[in-house]
Write a structure and sequence with these properties.
39% of the residues lie in helices and 19% in strands. It is built from 16 helices and 14 strands. It folds into 2 domains: 270 residues, Aldolase class I (TIM Barrel), CATH 3.20.20.70; 75 residues, Arc Repressor Mutant, subunit A. Helix 3 links the parallel strand 3 and strand 4. It is α/β, with parallel strands linked by helices.
């Protein structure tokens, strides 16, 4: 299956230079790094990410990949120097793909390059995604010794038949030992779950939630399965081999997740994310939702610097070739106008438990924003008491219809 297509956009120069307007106010903005590791042992049936198995690499070498990342890190430093940008990194996130298919030393090497090139603030969050079957206690200890602070485990489900439908290869029995090993190494832990897989019942989903809670991780994510065109699971649904996703059942599963996780001491801070005692959110992901800046390193990675979005070529070979020639791997970019930035601000902030200030919404919104706020309260989508206190925060019903609320509130 080919990865999903990149968006359309205007090209950047070969140097990777960003528009001069980006420099305005850039010093006041938080800065993070996303590092994409595009390698997987197998492709999961639902996956639409920019990932590659060994047979799809066509000459790209995982062994040489850190050097390519190092070249983009150096290029990013040059581009940001031209803008007068000198902020150190507040967060680093290794995602994929399966980052832990690379040796721990390779990930640490890239982290050290980021540290020496940009600087990393004291107490920064440094996260690595991992499959339960791709790490052991020794690997996790080496990550911790190298400066990683947090591991996010892709558990997805505790139920074998659900994992089979998703084409996940790990044994559910392996999850508890590796989470315990991560804790023993001093790492913060997160568990990622997926709900709404065809054939998954409420009882199946409860079993997955119960497993996640029993592990007592610092953080739990629960994402609704989205069927993407071109994936194996989309083809199975189209051929009638498995049932389509049931939207009403997914809504019931979300409500079950919120009730179960709340009872277990987790607080929602974003639509799909809960933190133990409200004290352990993913600071890197919060930075996305709070409209800060990040540079995405690696093939297909997306970046955002003060209103400019840009993204890299997809294939690791094309990515490495450009960098070897001293050229930016960027495939395109777009400069957001004031209306787009306002829409995104509203869309992102309303996803958060902290919500958005009524005063800011009035400043960003259209002529009818006050009437829309009142209508959303009347429809049970927005917390009326908190709105009177000056903040727009979604109710549980509003969280299920968050996109609709955001569209109503946007100018």
């Amino acid at each position: 299956m080919p990865p999903s297509a990149l968006p359309l956009g205007a090209p950047l120069p070969a140097s990777g230079a960003l528009p001069a307007s980006v420099a305005d106010g850039i010093h006041q903005r938080q800065f993070g790094a996303y590092v994409h590791i595009p390698f997987c042992r197998v492709r999961c049936g639902y996956c639409d990410f920019n990932t590659y198995t060994a047979t799809e690499l066509a000459g790209a070498s995982p062994r040489e990949y850190p050097a390519s990342l190092g070249a983009e890190i150096a290029l990013a430093r040059t581009v940001l120097d031209e803008l007068g940008h000198d902020a150190p990194l507040s967060t680093v996130f290794f995602g994929g793909g399966t980052p832990t298919l690379l040796p721990a030393e390779s990930l640490i090497e890239v982290l050290q390059q980021l540290r020496s090139t940009f600087g990393i603030v004291d107490g920064a969050e440094v996260s690595v995604e991992a499959n339960p079957d791709s790490v052991d206690a020794d690997y996790l200890s080496r990550l911790a010794a190298g400066g990683v602070t947090r591991v996010s485990f892709g558990v997805q489900s505790a139920v074998p038949h659900v994992l089979d439908t998703l084409d996940r290869t790990h044994d559910p029995e392996r999850v508890a030992p590796v989470v315990a090993a991560a804790k023993a190494a001093g790492l913060s832990t997160s568990v990622d779950l997926i709900y709404g897989t065809p054939g998954e019942s409420l009882a199946d989903w409860q079993a997955s939630l119960d497993l996640a809670c029993s592990l007592e991780p610092d953080h739990i994510s629960a994402y609704a399965l989205i069927i993407e065109d071109g994936t194996a699971i989309a083809r199975q649904i189209r051929r009638g081999e498995i049932a389509p996703v049931d939207d009403d059942l997914q809504a019931d599963m979300y409500e079950l997740a919120d009730a179960t996780l709340t009872q277990a001491g987790y607080e929602w801070y974003e639509l799909s994310n809960w933190s133990r005692d409200g004290a352990h959110p993913s600071r890197h992901n919060l930075a996305y939702w709070q409209d800060t800046d990040w540079w995405g390193f690696g093939p297909g990675a997306h970046s955002h610097i003060n209103g400019v979005r840009f993204w890299n070529v997809k294939h690791p070979t094309a990515y490495a070739t450009r960098l070897t020639k001293g050229e930016s791997p960027a495939a395109g970019h777009e400069l957001l106008d004031a209306t787009q930035r306002a829409d995104e601000r509203i869309l992102l902030q309303t996803r958060l438990r902290s919500g958005i200030a009524v005063s800011e919404l009035r400043a960003l919104g259209g002529a009818n924003v006050q009437a829309e706020i009142a209508a959303c309260i009347a429809d049970g989508l927005v917390d009326g008491a908190l709105a009177l206190q000056g903040r727009i925060v979604l109710t549980l019903r509003g969280r299920l219809l968050a996109d609709i609320v955001a569209r109503r509130l946007c100018p």
